[in-house]
Amino acid sequence: MIARSLLLIGGSLLVATAANAQTIHVLGTNADAIACFRAAESESPRPEALRPCGEALRNTDLSAHDRIATYVNRGIVNFRTANFDAAIADFDTALDLHPNQPDALINKGITMLAAGSEVNSAVSMIDQGLANRPQRPWVGYWGRAVAHELAGRDAQAYRDYSRARQLRPGWQPAEQALARFSVRGG
User: Fold this and answer.
1) Fewest C-beta atoms under 10 Å: which of 15, 45, 86, 110?
2) Is 76 exposed, middle or buried (0-12, 13-18, 19+ CB in 10 A)?
3) The pTM is what?
4) Phi, psi (5° rounding) for residue 5?
5) Which domains does the chain have, with CATH numbers?
């Protein structure tokens, strides 16, 4: 039911934008890790984009940061190809390597929403990510707003969509979501 509701309120934006915006930059020179990052950043990654991610993760010389980033980025590719179980497993592996990694937490929460998990569990995951200073906090606020909207908590959803817009003025997902709301004066 939640997954169906996501489609009604902009699930395609959840898949197309939120996951794309939460990639982690690879700092080293591993070509496969960089290719995995680029696949996660692309508008429409295909399942074959997972190959360089796997190749990078098999490399024993990958730095700790790039290994975590590659798990998050592969999770995003899995998410964007609707392989939610594999995406959650990748985010969990990143969290095993670096507990409280904010981008892994936020992506896992958003993936949980898309997979139909209980909304409050997803909100809790996103809250943990936001508390740990993610690279792109507006995505966390946006994901949490989607969860609040699904739960019928419109005032909280509006506040989080507004916070996302404040952090990233002109960001289309926040602008489009806020266009659905009307605010009445008291």
Assistant:
1) 86
2) buried
3) 0.86
4) -65, -35
5) 2-178 (1.25.40.10)
